[in-house]
């Protein structure tokens, strides 16, 4: 029989990193969520080569103090929850304490961070989970991450990366979602030194939609506003004339988190049924708030799936919220051609 080995921490981290870091866009997502959790009001994202060779994310948030820098890169270390009970009421985007350890296990990371209460910054470099530099330096308040050579030490994973263009597309999607769910934060995204998105960060969702999708969409929106005490919905529903042949115009956030959920999609599409042709999907950007106890966000490492304790109530609320928005404007229902 083969001998059983207990794996060392570097190997454990490398294996676990696979769940969190699938591609450059996963790194961008995790680092942006951290910046938002750190109350940044301005975030700059720069990528080269689809993020495969270089990602830089600079925020003006709270920063990490000297004593916490090394800890932040350990697996399951987080400032966002303390006890198991806290899992029932998560208000931050992160909480699993896995991102920094996972990212640094499979790439070369340089971080410079300065909290306002500390008059110097710490530069920390960690390559493949191994510390390379920990030194004092000068920097503005906030945190800047530079990520180089993703998967340089896991060639099997590197093989699965797509072209720079495809990877850049995934990154752009991630940034768009976070910009839409956080209109109070200014996002500046540059791909190969070219600005791709620059949101105002003035807290106005319609402005953010305008920056992202342009005038045609921004001028054809109906406000959605619904609240029955258990579920509240705000945002915009596109007029029926700005539909699309796929679901890429459907964006919704649950308690501030971008998710995919077929119950919510179904409720949205059912509400539009009388107004759109078959196989056309509406434009919506919805912020859905439900009682934190009514939803389990701790289902999957990427946190994109959730579980509801009462999904029919969610369906009904969304259906009603959208229907009300559509009917208020006395839009004329589309008559489906009979085939
Ligand atoms: P999580 O976000 O789940 O807590 P991470 O591994 O993403 O875990 O980050 C670990 C910790 O590092 C965070 O809890 C936070 O305290 C700190 N941190 C990470 N990124 C930033 C940032 N941009 N600004 C301030 N603190 C940060
Ligand atoms: Mg995080």
From TrEMBL:
GO terms for molecular function: endonuclease activity. The keyword Cell inner membrane does not apply. Keywords: DNA damage, DNA repair, Endonuclease, Hydrolase, Nuclease. The keyword DNA damage applies. Residues 209-327 form the DNA mismatch repair protein S5 domain. This protein is involved in the repair of mismatches in DNA. It is required for dam-dependent methyl-directed DNA mismatch repair. May act as a 'molecular matchmaker', a protein that promotes the formation of a stable complex between two or more DNA-binding proteins in an ATP-dependent manner without itself being part of a final effector complex. Belongs to the DNA mismatch repair MutL/HexB family. This is DNA mismatch repair protein MutL. The lineage of its organism: Bacteria, Bacillati, Bacillota, Clostridia, Lachnospirales. The chain holds residues 1 to 339 of 615 of the full protein.
